[in-house]
Amino acid sequence: MKFKMTALEKRWVLYDVGNSAFTMLVATIFPIYFNYLAENAGISDVNYLAYWGYASSVCTLLVALMGPTLGAVADTKDFKKRIFKVVLFIGVAGCMVLGFLSSWIWFLGVFILAKTGYSASLVFYDAMLTDVTEPERMDTVSSQGFAWGYIGSCIPFLASLGVVLGGGSLGLSMQSSMTIAFLITAVWWLLSAVPLLMSYEQKYFVEQTEHVIRNSFRRLGKTFSDIKKEKHIFLFLLAFFFYIDGVYTIIDMATAYGQALGLDSTGLLLALLLTQIVAFPSVLILNRIAKNTGPTKVLTVCIVAYLFISLYAFGLDTQIEFWILAVMVGLFQGTVQALSRSYFGKIIPVEKSGEYFGLYDICGKGAAVLGTTLVSITTQMTGRMNVGVSAISVLFVIGLLLFRKAVKLNEEQ
């Protein structure tokens, strides 16, 4: 039987289409423009990659610190949408401002603000999954979000790419072209959120009390205590911390890595566009396979695949090899994120989804501080960028072993 989404599920998926445009820009055009600003300031290629990695680490660290606290507050009745709006507008505003900056240090500063707003919005967006659908539909709805996010993000990306690559023939400077590109993405992102903001209602919540903040901290403390007893949840979060760390590090630093290797900028952008195109059918196909074989088996395959991808990156030094890397990432990137999100949503208490997804985000985007910092430090210490990138392979090994243990414990519940 063909799967049909409800109106609310479609509006939830639509936000993935919008925020994925920002992700695409961060993974492609942002580091290229930062490289342009860095070169003008006389910064070396090795330091350019390191500074970009450090900025990504600061973003993820900020969200890791704020996520659980904001999530606990958001679990209070009628608070989830309010906080979602605030962090969404911070991210969108930051994206708009970036195109007007010509200083590399100011660019990094506002980038941290914009990406922090974006990442924080995903804490609440992911937590909304328990409100917009039912447990038996979560795997498919979550996968639909990532699938349509990948293909939908290509629209503003192609428009931005056309402005950036064709700006010279139109008499536009690099900065003017980038300003337009960032504005296109910000407007797309904001408009995609409007239908969800208009129709979303918090289904599961904690009743409001006189001291919302104080009681939120108390609930958060109890959640930290409870999660130690729920070993299947705790081990999954620990596994997720390691394997998704590697995934997000590859996403955050792929273009910067290729740029630092001296590969053609246009070729890099087109390769990452190919990643989005490949990811769209891959997520849907692997979700169908997961329905028949079970999501945990498909997740295991994805983690193993990423282990080989990280090892493959060690010898990468040509454009065609980068294209092969882009295709391999596209095959598994969306599924490992989609099934991780839905699996977690099914094993947590629904009325505490904000708190738990705040913790999930610590172990997700918050964990990426380890990967990006590891790449940056290793690159500077060895002077070899491929050594830094391939070093994250150990994270997939640890994540895989912990994940299989968590699955076993969950099946024994």
Any guess at the CATH architecture?
A: Up-down Bundle
Ranges where pLDDT stays below 50 over 5 or more residues in a row are: none
Integer-rounded radius of gyration: 20 Å
The computed structural class is: mainly alpha
Instruction: Find the count of extended strands (DSSP E, 2+ residues).
Output: 0
What does the model show?
The chain is 82% helix and 0% strand. It has one domain (7-411): MFS general substrate transporter like domains (Growth Hormone, Chain: A), CATH 1.20.1250.20. The relative contact order is 0.17. The model has no long low-confidence stretch (mean pLDDT 82). The chain contains 18 helices and no strands. It has helices at residues 7-27, 29-40, 45-74, 80-98, 104-127, 129-132, 138-152, 154-166, 174-199, 212-229, 231-260, 265-293, 295-312, 319-347, 353-363, 368-382, 385-390, 393-411.
